[in-house]
Amino acid sequence: MISAILLRSRSSSSSSSSSSAVITRYASTKTHDDAKEITSFYLRKDIHVPRGLTKPYSTRQENERERNGDHWDRRLVAALEQKIANPNKPGAHEIDSWKNDPLKKTIVVLGSGWGAISFIKALKGRELNEMFNVVVVSPRNYFLYTPLLPGVATGAIETRSIVESIRRPIAEKGFKFYEAQATDINAKERTVTFSNRYLTSAIATKWLPSVESKHKSQSFEMKYDYLVVAVGAIPNTFGVPGVEQFCLFFKEVSHAAMFRSQVNARFERAALPEMTEDQIKDLLRFVIIGAGPTGVELAAELYDLVYNDVAKTFPKRLLRHVSINIIDLQDRLLSTYNREIQDYATDFFNKANINCLLNTQVKEVKQCVLVVKDKNTGEEKELPFGMAVWCSGIKMNPLCENIMNTLPEDSQPNRRSLLADKALRVKGSDGSIFAIGDCVTLEPKSFPATAQVAKQEAYFLADRFNKAAQAKSVDSLADPKAEFVYTHRGSLAYIGKDAAVADIPGVTILKGILAGFFWKSFETVSQVSYGNSFKVGCDMLRTKIWGRDISRLL
Ligand SMILES: Cc1cc2nc3c(=O)[nH]c(=O)nc-3n(C[C@H](O)[C@H](O)[C@H](O)COP(=O)(O)OP(=O)(O)OC[C@H]3O[C@@H](n4cnc5c(N)ncnc54)[C@H](O)[C@@H]3O)c2cc1C
Q1: What is the pLDDT of residues 396-419, one digit of tens each?
Q2: Class of 243-392 per CATH?
């Protein structure tokens, strides 16, 4: 029988219809000898057949075939047919190719942040791969552990310690990843358009060999059955003029690297001969706008850098001119935390000589000058700065607006983020689009834009897909009773000088050095890989013993 298969396959390499019957027979009678022969046949033709397809059926597969009919057989037939129809076209017939298996449903995941990585890690790769193609697409090919970004900005933690290649978990699960950005979504056709903006950047134009391509940015389209949107949010300037031009944002690795470099540049410049006192004062006036956890932690890390490391290595005369300021519209730091913590942190900053300009609104940013207004008195004044960092809020990723526009009218009344039901199904998408993390508001209950929420939403959604794969049916994804339940596990913030504040609901509130120890331990063990936990732990120890590296590389 095998010889007949090979003969027919050879003679009908361009005719998939005649080979189809043969392959179907092979698929249904696959024995050890058949497998060996068909593998060597393909090897002779220099066609790689993934081992999984030519291995005889395992007992588990045999059981599955008995239970679930011919799903596996259909996969095998489709794959072998493709190979016989296009034996010489590289890539096109490979299961390990950019083409998605047409016999499986396709889940496209957008993003590589907290939501996306937690979703991917929680998916049960083996079971899921039998039923779904999982494709992850993001312009960033790494995950960033944002809570330690302020530490990276001052050199307390090294950048690579909080960055994890997204390819690692994806490869482990047998999913696909493309480095590209979603630019357009057609909810009716269920397609996403992507482009790789990096390819048109100045660096890529200079350094990457040019690839013949219709579009220089290598645009491509992908069909999905389920789209998981985890694209996060972007910094919000609230329409304040001058923010984009004159402030640094603080959300990405590049921002932290710029902060580290620019702080250093200011101290080196201030140390130059013939700088006047006024010039030094202006240069070393640091302003952080936004007294939420990010702004507070950044001010705290800057304080540590200045008084632990700059103080030991730069001329002492500079120190008395340094001023660290934090501005917020609210009357306390950390306004979303417990009141006791807010008071403690505000008092701690005041004692440390970090200027808290509260009840203060930034009206405009000019070059090296902020125009601020006192909320109580209405008085406006100018505040010169050497460096200003905008840590004040987030707004919708533009892609979400695109998604809203492709959904039926009136399904998305909230124009500040995607609106989804209690099981994360985006309204108006017929259950084909899910959203997790900062880009979505759930109805009827909304949750804060934190990593903690993004992670729990991701786990909930992954569990639903795992269950669908287990049941070999997608019906459960549409279950109207499914509901995401959020459990708040607490809030932590570093406030400088090895101290922190921690609100652990139902347990206690911690403040000071003990909380600082808890914060360090928690951030070390919470990394997404053991490797990164090790690196973060070593960084913290290194900083404690030898201090921060204050050389400027950029
Ligand atoms: C400095 C800092 C400190 C923080 N500290 C804490 C903390 O201590 N605790 C806490 O709970 N939260 C913290 N947060 C908030 C937390 O980081 C966010 O809530 C969390 O990142 C949201 O996860 P996400 O997956 O929705 O978005 P993100 O993590 O922002 O990920 C978005 C992903 O989408 C990708 N993307 C963007 N546009 C597209 C597109 N068009 N197509 C495809 N992909 C796209 C991005 O490249 C990115 O990979 C902090 C945030 C910052 C900035």
Answers
A1: 999 999 999 999 999 999 888 999
A2: alpha beta
